[in-house]
Design brief:
Blueprint: H1 4-13, E1 22-28, H2 32-44, E2 50-53, H3 63-66, E3 70-71, H4 82-101, E4 110-113, H5 120-133, E5 138-141, H6 142-148, E6 157-161, E7 165-166, H7 169-182, E8 186-188, E9 193-197, E10 200-203, E11 206-215, H8 221-227, E12 234-241, E13 244-245, E14 256-259, E15 271-274, E16 280-283, E17 287-288, H9 303-319, H10 324-333, H11 337-344, E18 358-359, E19 363-370, E20 375-376, E21 381-384, E22 388-393, H12 398-417
Parallel strand pairs: 1-2, 1-11, 2-8, 4-14, 11-22
Antiparallel strand pairs: 3-7, 4-6, 5-6, 9-10, 10-11, 12-17, 12-19, 13-16, 13-18, 15-16, 19-20, 21-22
């Protein structure tokens, strides 16, 4: 058996090998959705050739490797949504996978707290949604909440989710790379999609003719989709997520502590996350980014992207669609450690700025925006035909949902493409 390290070495070597001239399936994007789709494609079409294009030097360097690591239970979403449909199943899939693969998992659970009486109705709505989705939940009194976490602050009651857990996303991505390599899936790193003509894709490393293309490119999914005639009513609007990490010796937490979110937007608000190793972090932000890979400073600056995104943000700010003006101002203020700590103090006793001295690695949310309705898309979105298929919106809880969602998407691929297993 080849060990994990050797598998990763083989994976990195792919960038020095020549790109195949043809493939049955070409998957664009090596994040968690791209790898899940590749593995599901292998399961459905065991004799096919599969190539994954990843523009970076390894898989998961963007959202998949920079996310919170929280496995969501599935009670935030309305019962008619794809997020609700796949969250609980995805949570169980990852928990089983971690046990089978001997990957560490922190099955700590979560408390959603009400900061004041005005949030009690929101807490009840989350319980209603969870019940409709079949998610194990318990409404607990403030006293019961403090037995679960002595430092928690909540008004009258809180919502306890026992199945919410944490894993290490980088470790999980490394294991998925190993799985894909063992399945004979070609992982072509440092290979960027440039354009397409008919069934031929041009990359920075040459051309490849694909029988079928599946686009899971995250921040660039809309642009690639437009090359195939899709996503004309959509664009990606990126938001930057930052976490403050607790210092060594920071008072531990028994479980995640979340506020009642604004259910009109797809963000969950500043909260406490317990990491796989038991550490604590505060976040994330949802700061409007000014270009697609705007992690920090002028890093990855792209003038054309900046002009387009800033123009869209200015229009949203002026019209105040979906209360964007308030959202933007609130999120920009969270770049201050002091503001983050202030918000965190609403959830927990004994929170001090000195305990959270370091910002973690920023992440970017590839949030889909509907140009026709001027709204953020709240659910997963996809489009496709007999030539190509495009995953346009797979934001949180996309990591949790990845494998049942990929199975569902391959069913759609089979239907629209006519390619039978």
């Amino acid at each position: 058996m080849i060990d994990d390290g050797r598998i990763i070495d083989l994976f990195f070597c792919m960038e020095t090998m020549s790109l195949p001239s043809t493939t049955d399936f070409l998957i664009i994007g090596g994040g968690v959705m791209g790898l899940a789709l590749a593995l599901e494609t292998r399961r459905l079409y065991p004799l096919s050739t599969i190539v994954v294009l990843e523009k970076e030097s390894q898989c998961g360097l963007h959202a998949s490797g920079r996310n919170s690591g929280v496995l969501h239970a599935g009670f935030y979403y309305t019962a008619d949504s794809l997020k609700a449909r796949f969250s609980q199943e995805g949570n169980q899939w990852w928990q089983n996978y971690c046990k089978e693969q001997k990957l560490p998992l922190n099955s700590c659970g979560k408390l959603v707290v009400a900061r004041h009486e005005g949030e009690l109705a929101g807490l009840d709505e989350l319980k209603r949604r969870g019940d409709a989705n079949g998610v194990p939940l318990e409404m607990v009194s403030a006293e019961e909440a403090r037995r679960l976490e002595p430092r928690v602050k909540t008004c009258q009651r809180a919502l306890f989710s026992p199945t919410t857990a944490s894993l290490d996303p980088k470790m999980a991505m490394t294991r998925l790379v190993r799985d894909a390599s063992r399945e004979g899936i070609i992982l072509a790193t440092r290979t960027s999609f440039l354009s397409r003509q008919q069934d031929q894709v041009t990359t920075n490393r040459g051309k490849i003719t694909a029988g079928y293309v599946i686009n899971a490119a995250g921040l660039y999914a809309d642009q690639i989709a437009r090359a195939y005639g899709f996503a004309n009513e959509y664009t990606i609007l990126p938001f930057k997520g930052l976490y403050l990490y607790g210092r060594e010796g920071c008072p531990p937490l028994n479980l995640h502590i979340y506020p009642v979110p604004d259910l009109a937007n797809p963000f969950l608000g500043v909260h406490f996350t317990v990491t796989m190793m038991g550490g604590v972090k505060i976040g994330p932000t949802a700061i409007p980014a000014f270009w697609r890979q705007h992690y920090r400073g002028m890093e990855n600056f792209n003038l054309q992207e900046a002009i387009t995104i800033l123009g869209l943000q200015a229009a949203l700010f002026w019209r105040n669609d979906f209360n964007f003006r308030r959202l933007a101002m609130q999120e920009l203020a969270k770049q201050s450690r002091g503001q983050m700590i202030k918000l965190a103090k609403d959830l927990l006793e004994g929170v001090y700025k000195m305990d959270f001295p370091v910002w973690g690695l920023p992440g970017l949310r590839a949030q889909l925006f509907n140009l026709e309705s001027n709204k953020l898309e709240m659910d997963f979105r996809y489009q496709g035909d007999r030539h190509s298929f495009h995953v346009l919106n797979a934001v949180s809880p996309g990591f949790t949902c990845a494998f049942p969602f990929a199975k569902f998407l391959l069913q759609q691929v089979t239907e629209v493409s006519g390619i039978r297993p």
